[in-house]
Design goal:
This is Peptidase S66. One of its GO terms (biological process) is proteolysis. Belongs to the peptidase S66 family. With 306 residues, this protein is an alpha/beta fold. Helix content is 30%, strand content 26%. It contains ten helices and eleven strands. The strands form two sheets. The chain has a six-stranded mixed beta sheet with strand order 2-1-3-4-5-10, with helices on both faces. It has a five-stranded mixed beta sheet with strand order 9-8-7-6-11.
Length: 306
């Protein structure tokens, strides 16, 4: 697909990029499309399992507050684990003051959710979407992912459509969420935004249904789900069910959460750790409709690239 050349700035606040070849391929592809890719040196950084030491990874985020010229897109190299370590030292207020109101897209998912949600608390709408190595550096690029990425970053009003279990839903609210494990890890900390009348969109990887249920119950018991208008589930990949589960699966989890909360729970959005993923602006206004098995989520109010 043809897109306007943009400036990308790479950040690596989480895990070491173990697939260096994929990251290099992603940079090559972006540059071949006419994009400028800055700070590629963060790709090779390593300290134990992390993408550099604490100071280096903190500076990836805190340094955004001092940027004279903002890039078009600030892109996480990969997820993994590591962002949670940085939370006490991150200058969320300073970064938010620099980014807020500017046409810049801060994009990533997975572990990066732990940075995106505190920024949302400070009024920064970021994008839960593809990352450098896993998506732009995939052996076979997903046209679905690329098309939804560029559409989210350039469309003031964006509508996603997909098939789900038949029901009747019509709600509006603030779209937020991301990786479920990261959301759960922020409960009881100063870094989880208190979203009222929200549309909570969740995804995860390598989490068995009982772990997903346990995290959702934690959100329910802490009062978070009671403040939401609806839940949308993305992809939950990498879990292996066994004979011991005896029919207990993700559908069992969704049924329990519906019964417990009374909330509409809309499944099967292509979002998360999968080759095909939409890009969601976290903090945008959303209108969720389901008629029969046809779902739409219309998003607006998010920053778009000029």
């Amino acid at each position: 697909m043809s897109v306007t050349p943009r400036t990308f700035q790479l950040i690596a606040p989480s895990g070491y990029c173990h697939n260096q070849q994929a990251a290099s391929l992603a940079v090559e592809r972006l540059r071949n499309q006419g994009h400028q890719v800055l700070r590629t040196e963060v790709i090779a950084r390593r300290e134990q399992r992390f993408a550099g030491n604490e100071a280096e990874r903190l500076q990836d985020i805190n340094g955004l507050a001092q940027l004279h010229n903002l890039p078009d897109i600030i892109l996480a190299v990969r997820g993994g684990y590591g962002a949670t370590r940085l939370l006490p030292g991150l200058d969320f207020a300073g970064v938010a003051a620099r980014l807020r109101g500017n046409p810049v897209a801060l994009c990533g998912h997975s572990d990066f959710t732990a940075i995106q949600l505190p920024l949302l608390q400070h009024g920064v709408i970021s994008f839960s979407g593809p990352m450098l190595a896993g998506n732009f550096g995939a052996e076979v690029l997903s046209e679905f992912t690329l098309e939804h990425f560029w559409r989210a970053l350039t469309s003031p009003k964006l509508t996603l459509s997909w098939k789900t279990q038949p029901q009747d839903v019509d709600v509006t609210g603030t779209v937020w969420g991301g990786n479920l494990a990261m959301i759960a890890s922020l409960i009881g900390t100063p870094w989880l935004p208190q979203i009222e009348d929200g549309i909570l969109v969740i995804e995860d990887v390598n989490e068995h249904p009982f772990r997903v249920e346990r995290m959702l119950l934690q959100l329910a018991h802490s009062g978070i789900l009671a403040r939401q208008k609806a839940i949308v589930t993305g992809s939950f990949t990498g879990a292996t069910l066994t004979e011991y589960d005896n029919g207990y699966d993700f559908d069992s989890v969704w049924t329990l959460i519906r019964q417990l909360t009374g909330l509409p729970l809309v499944t099967d959005l292509a979002f998360g750790h999968h080759w095909d993923t939409v890009t969601l602006p976290l903090g945008a206004q959303g209108h969720l409709q389901v008629k029969g098995s046809d779902s739409t989520l219309t998003l607006s109010g998010h920053p778009t690239l000029r």
